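Weekly puzzle thread! Below is a chain. First person to post its structure in token form gets bragging rights.
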Amino acid sequence: MSDRTLHLELENIGGIEREEISITEGATFIQGPNAANKSSLLKGLLFALGARTVPIRSGADEARATLSVGDRRVERVARRTDAGVETSGEAWISDSDDVTLLERFAALLETNSLRSAVARNEDVETLLKEPMDIEALEEKRSAKMRRKREFTADVESAGDVDERLGDRERELAEKRDRLDELETTLEELYDEQDASSTDDDDGLQELRDERADLRSDETDHEAQIEQLESAIDRLEERKTEIESDIESTRETVESNDLERLERERESVRSELDDVTRRLDVLQSVLTANREMLDSEFTGALGHDTGLMGDEVTCWACGRSAPLEEFDETVDELTELVKDDKRRKREREPEIEELTEQIEEVRRSETELQELESEMRDVEQKLASRRDSLDDRQSQLRTVRDRLDELDDGIAQRAADQRSEQSALTEEIEETRVEIQTLRREIERLEGTCESLRETQGEIERKRDEIEELTDEITALTDRIENLESELREVFNGTMDELLDALEFERIERVWLDGEFELVIAREVDGRTQQDSLDHLAESEREMVGLVLALAGFVTYDVADITPVLVLDSLGAFDAERTRRLVDHFADETDYLVATAHPESAVDATFDTITFEPPVQG
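Winning reply:
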């Protein structure tokens, strides 16, 4: 057995006591006459994959299915208990939602819900759309949109960080160049001062050094004050924007009564549930009446032909009544079913609209809380910046007062020395003052640039996050908007292909319309006209049901969940159409397993496993 061959072992399943088979990749036919346990084999295979039920062989207490491929092996057991049948062991598929996809779109037995719904001309919309889970996709998209708004607000609050960093870096380079020039000039001035043997008073120099330091402090305070004023202006602008956003958001929240909307939605849902339950009952009654009227069992219940017309004995009450009355009852039931279907289609959009309004109110409430929180943060920052501004302005006034005192002291000391201050000494002093000021400004600019680089890196990361979130939101939006149309397009395209391949001459086209109703166009008396699903032949209805399930198999990527697609009860197709049907389906899965009768001439290109009826002891 190769690494890609499925090995299946079954015990006490259906009519199988014990059986082992190997299934290779591609299409495989399980061939054998009726009562050869072909369907039991398929049910055992599906049970190993994860199906919730399996028939336990009569007289046995438990059934067992083992499936292995390569290094992977799973085993499941179903046991009879006083409380019913209990299952244990590991299945190929464990997730409940994935099991639903397996049973609905990959387990295409005669009892498959979609095949049965098509055969009885019942509603297929719910069966097809249930796994879409649009509400979960909407919640996921809303969460990503909230995160994107948070990042966008952070990026916008950072302002023109790239431009500011560029300006500070250019300013820093210019000041470093200027510092190099001044240091060279100061050395030249010192050399010239030494040559002139001019001595300066130590006390005067101390005053001048202090003045140089204070002038540097003055410049630093002025720069800090300018930054604080700029920050306050930006915060006040942001505060104004938030106040406007809060007002508009609060109006949205207050203008909608969330509890009323939820009550209204619950009321619509309750009414829709009532309609759905009544529709199920009516459809069941309608199906039963049609089957009893059209089936071979009518005569057994009592069917007499008299002078006044045919009479039939009622299978419910036992009384006889004209056949026309039974036909009228069926017509009335049909009209009731149509009315309930119409009411259901009319009410479902109301639930979606109410849900959208509720989500909008909830999003507005969340946004309002976020805006109010941001407002408190902005107000706290404003108070802090204003306090810092007051402190800086007070410090600047103190420095300037001391500078005035130093200027007076230096002037007085110079006068006391009764000597003229040389132009050289003044130039040296001014150069030293400028050098000290430049060094402080350079140190401050280096810190500012480093901080801006960190902010720039964080902003770039958030921009990347915003771009990624935008793509994810777009993908979710497209999936939400396109999921239903994709399902229709896959079904309609596949159905067109199969109609060409299977050559049903009387059928022009079968498609799902916008309401997920099956529409049939067929040729009648040389003209193409719309017709009822009830008027199709058994093989034609079988094809529609199978293609409908396959459309779900492709749309929901069921091949990623289960490696096997199972087909049963293909007796309505002749050998050539069976071959074409299986050949088309085989392209969608790794393994396709189908049943066939011995008289069917199965194509030699497909693997065939022959089953014989069990020997009766």
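Puzzle host: Confirmed. Bonus trivia for everyone else. The chain is about 65% helix and 15% strand.
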